[in-house]
Design brief:
The protein has 128 residues and is of the alpha+beta class. It has one helix at residues 3-22; strands at 31-32, 40-45, 48-50, 53-57, 61-66, 74-76, 99-103, 108-114, 117-127. It has one helix and nine strands. The chain is elongated, with a radius of gyration of 22 Å. The chain binds copper (II) ion.
């Protein structure tokens, strides 16, 4: 192998490494900043969740957002462990600019609250 070939191979390896490093890593799909089109939305307002009672079909998603400027955190009862439907929990506070969508694949009557203001409560009924 002559020097020219060695240089070309070296440059190609560096280019490939650079490309690999520059690839965007996948972001957590849970948290979005925009409400998906056609989404079923529950809004946290000054008065609490709206609507506070909602019935959906199994497999449908609900997108939570807030009208306020504080962090919020919709999550399954019971507070503080969220053990009744543990997946129904973003596991961290949401920025007021963030929305969070959750797909309900279990039939039932799922009570929830704002983990940061647990006096705000709601219930989502999931039917077959
Ligand atoms: Cu909680």
């Amino acid at each position: 192998m002559n020097t020219k070939v060695a240089i070309v191979v070296g440059v190609l390896i560096l280019a490939a490494a650079g490309w690999y490093v520059s690839q965007e890593k996948p972001v957590t799909p849970q948290v979005q900043v925009k409400v998906p089109e056609g989404a079923i939305v529950v809004e946290l307002t000054k008065e609490g969740f709206s609507p506070s009672e909602l019935t959906i079909a199994k497999g449908e998603s609900v997108t939570f957002r807030t009208t306020g400027t504080d962090l919020y955190w919709p999550a399954s009862n019971l507070h503080p462990s969220h053990g009744i439907y543990p997946e129904f929990d973003p596991l961290k506070p949401l920025q007021p600019t963030e929305v969070w969508s959750f797909t309900f694949d279990q039939v039932g009557e799922w009570k929830y609250h704002d983990h940061l203001a647990p006096y705000f409560t709601g219930v989502i009924t999931v039917t077959e």
